[in-house]
Design goal:
Blueprint: E1 8-14, H1 19-22, E2 28-32, E3 42-50, E4 53-62, E5 73-78, E6 89-99, H2 107-120
Antiparallel strand pairs: 1-2, 1-6, 2-5, 3-4, 3-6, 4-5
InterPro entries: Riboflavin_kinase (IPR023468), Riboflavin_kinase_bac/euk (IPR015865), Riboflavin_kinase_dom_sf (IPR023465)
GO biological process, one term: riboflavin biosynthetic process
Protein name: riboflavin kinase
Length: 124
């Protein structure tokens, strides 16, 4: 039996380490309400619904290798958004797969790639 492709889910926004904010790209760390372990590691365009209002975002699912982490997590940089949404439930609709996860050698390499990912989806 073929596994159903994950295209959307809801989840609670939890506190992360703040690393995204330190390089200028804060992320909402989302604890999904379903098992997303079958989702391909990488970066996706997405829509994220906060209080039923849609925002564009760039999502990453997988280990954050540049930070030395091995456990996968799901996080979204929400374009044109800066409110505190900790502990709120959001809905994520995945769009186009942009690229696979990359192990960057520096925070600057990661920052440049995030800019490229945002530009890819037509943001900023």
């Amino acid at each position: 039996m073929r596994k159903k492709q994950i295209t959307n889910f809801s989840g609670k926004v939890t506190r992360g380490s703040g690393d995204g904010t330190k390089i200028g790209f804060p992320t909402a760390n989302i604890l999904p309400n379903i098992d997303i372990s079958g989702l391909k590691y990488g970066v996706y365009a997405c829509d994220i619904y906060i209080e039923k209002k849609p925002y564009k975002g760039v999502a990453h699912y997988g280990p954050r290798a540049v930070f030395g982490e091995t456990k996968p997590q799901f996080e979204v940089h929400i374009l044109d958004f800066s409110r505190d949404i900790y502990e709120r439930t959001v809905k994520v609709i995945l769009g186009e797969f942009i690229r696979e996860t990359i192990k960057f050698n520096s925070m600057e390499e990661l920052r440049i790639q995030i800019i490229n990912d945002i530009n890819f989806i037509g943001g900023r």
